[in-house]
């Protein structure tokens, strides 16, 4: 049996050299945070809005941000008793005053509105929130975040490098990010894993033995039932699972990534070689090698944020899958991709074409009323190839309504469950492209996606 020798220190140092913010980066971040703080205060003063406090939260405030990322979360907090409508109106008014100094501003909406701005090269979220006494009294989901800051910052002190290593390792494995597109690990979740296990190495070693239902409860709260693959009880709010957004596949991808890494710890697990977009000739070669049918439902990308779009795309993917199965088509896999102008739901089928004949089995002969009704119906119908009795049941060979998957989708796509924004876009026009027709889609990101897909 091989002796485990640990992760080489020089490997960790080589990774940190590339991902740890430099001193000038840190100084610039602090400078921008101070500017934003004073601008929020000044804006509240000009607008005559009292008792507004500013808090910097998130990884930038905790020292666990990766070099090159310039995200700042600025929370504009109001007294707990502030009416929600007033918080939204006054909070956005303050944010818009600050945005006058920004290069770009965009209204966004989570549970309530907030403003995203680009300020001196930094991606800044200006978020109104309630200043509640404890996380158990939150009035909106964002109210928890300051409590996350208070919990993590003192406990992660001295282990910031461990968090950075874990974040980059998850990035390398394609599992970092809790947005609904990725369904992976959030930054807060990585910090809690380091607090729980003590180090990057301990986390990776422990994850090799995870199973669905794995539970981590740092503060030993009262048992609460959760059904997600990984349950990490929020130390500030025991009703919440911090890992709720993590899908089963991303959970398992992380386990696999950890196991492979420990077999041979290398830089590539943190910084994998970028995938090159598939060329037309490569697409044609892969189609010939696979001998399956590739379909893509293509439509204009809805003008909504990703966290609204992707749940609708996944809903469409599931509904289209159900439709194809209902009409006897066998799928190998499905996937979704979305770019700036076009969006595609991809489907790989064993075959996109079925025989014209379909075997339709009826009731047993001895169930007189139903059996005779079934027989009379199909004997009189056009497009019936023949009828007989098999294993005591009437069977008629009838003409299949949709012998091609493409024809089925073209005719019945709008009967699928699509979600409001996707439905609107699809109703304005869609295209079903098949096999070599996929070469029409030239978007570089799509071609990179296609390399993994095929």
Notes on the protein architecture:
- The chain contains 15 helices and 15 strands.
- The protein has 454 residues and is an alpha+beta fold.
- The strands form four sheets. It has a five-stranded mixed β-sheet, sandwiched between helices. It has a four-stranded antiparallel β-sheet with strand order 10-11-9-15, with helices on both faces. Strands 6-7-8 form a three-stranded mixed β-sheet, covered by helices on one side.
- It is elongated, with a radius of gyration of 28 Å.
- The mean pLDDT is 95.
Compact description:
The protein has 15 helices and 15 strands. With 454 residues, the chain is of the alpha+beta class.
Write down the overall mean pLDDT: 95
C-alpha-based Rg, rounded: 28 Å
The helical percent reads 40-55%
Beta-strand residue percentage: 15-25%
User: How many helices in DSSP terms?
Assistant: 15
Order of secondary-structure elements: HHEHEHEEEHHHHEEEHHEHEEEHEEHHEH
Biggest β-sheet strands, sense, barrel: 5 strands, mixed
Please identify the structural class as seen in this structure: alpha+beta
What general outline do the C-alpha atoms trace? Answer: elongated
Q: Ends: how far apart?
A: 38 Å
Would you identify the regions where 5 or more consecutive residues have pLDDT less than 50? none
Name the strands of the widest sheet in spatial order: 1-2-5-4-3
